[in-house]
Amino acid sequence: MRAGRLFRHMLWPDWWVLRAFPVSALRTIEQAIAESERTHQGELRFVVEAGLPLPGLLRDQSPRARAIELFAQLGVWDTEHNSGVLIYVQLLDRSVEIVADRGIDARVDDAFWSAVCRRMEAAFREGRFESGTLLALNEITQALAMYFPASGENPDELPNTPLIR
């Protein structure tokens, strides 16, 4: 583990997330998730962390491993159609990870998920956190609507509110 990474993550305050994602942006993202989920049977979760928690840092956890951990903790894998998608933003490591449940992941290749992540990261480098997230949500919505179109009853299985950790 690099000492610089450890200190950066331990010293950076969690409220820093609100500089990149102010309350107004979080509300807009929440509304976009709700609108998205009306068009398909998938479930979206959006999680932002400034830095990793201490246990993850001590294990030298990668942003990908943290995203998978949160995918399980938040029950994104536990949707009726196995179509949950977690978008994880780790600000200090400047990383975006998407973890998709087996139902949608079997239909959409890794190149798609990776491309969405890289476009978000490019937008974030330009300071376009809200618009970069909304563009990614739009792309993911199109994929979910193609493979899991809304039909009949469409329960909202996971919270739409972005999670700041």
TrEMBL record:
Family matches, as InterPro entries: TPM_dom (IPR007621)
Bilayer-spanning residue ranges: none
Annotated ranges, domain TPM: 27-142
Gene3D superfamilies: 3.10.310.50
Any Pfam family matching the protein: TPM_phosphatase
Protein's UniProt name: TPM domain-containing protein
Record organism: Candidatus Propionivibrio dominans
